[in-house]
Amino acid sequence: MWGVASFANYFLNSWIVAGIGTIVVLFFGSLAGFAFAKYEFPARDIIFMILLTTLMIPGQVTLIPVFLIVKTLGWLNSYPGLIVPGLANVFALFLMRQFMQTIPNDLLDAARIDGCSEFRTYGQIILPLAKPIIATLGIFVFMGYWNDLFWPLIITSQDKMKTLQLGLSLLKTGYGTTRWNILMAGTTLGSVPIIIVFLFLQRFFIQGIALTGLKE
């Protein structure tokens, strides 16, 4: 039966998937954005354009290949299966690159003269300056993971691995008659983390939007 224990389990699964997924996307997205914005390497712009073209491919086209890969790796009904396919986020790379191009190269040159390694430059100079765009992207990525219903529906069959959105959908389709009282209560509680994340990052989010049109 769908009860308090089930809701707590779904809620925890959503937190784990959205939390870990958001952190990893932000880390690799900012690292890749830094590389594409501030380093010269062969075919950099061509590679970037190829990556951008993947944004035009509907997710339904890659659904079956991704599912087969996840199944081959034995990741069905697991956290890696829920998290990893969403980590290749080209939009995160694009957003980070566009913002980091506005950071003056003189700051990086000064850090190198002072003896900073490239990774230390990234951690102590780039990331603090990129807080607004990291917060903005973090909200989008967290919402994407948290509200995702289709992918968890495809790869999870065990009740213990279902996410909150999938669990709430069972209230409407699994019992013949919709349990509106529990559905409304679960939906309300399910929206609380999104509100908390937004309120916590609101200052940086607004600042990120304000800086979107600025150029170096």
Structure in words:
The chain is mainly alpha-helical and 216 residues long. It has one domain: MetI-like (MetI-like fold). 74% of the residues lie in helices and 0% in strands. It is built from 11 helices and no strands. Helix 1 packs across helix 5, helix 1 runs antiparallel to helix 8 and helix 5 packs antiparallel against helix 8. It is globular. The N and C termini lie far apart (58 Å). The C terminus is likely disordered.
Outline the fold blueprint.
Elements: H1 4-38, H2 44-53, H3 59-72, H4 79-83, H5 90-100, H6 105-113, H7 118-129, H8 131-147, H9 150-155, H10 164-173, H11 180-210
- Average the pLDDT over all residues and give the rounded result: 84
Number of strands: 0
Percent strand equals: under 5%
Biggest sheet descriptor: none
Number of domains in the coordinates?
A: 1
Number of helices: 11
Report Rg.
Answer: 20 Å
Instruction: Report the uncertain regions.
Output: 212-216
Which CATH class?
Mainly Alpha
CATH superfamily: MetI-like
Give the SSE order as H and E letters: HHHHHHHHHHH
**Helical content class:** over 70%
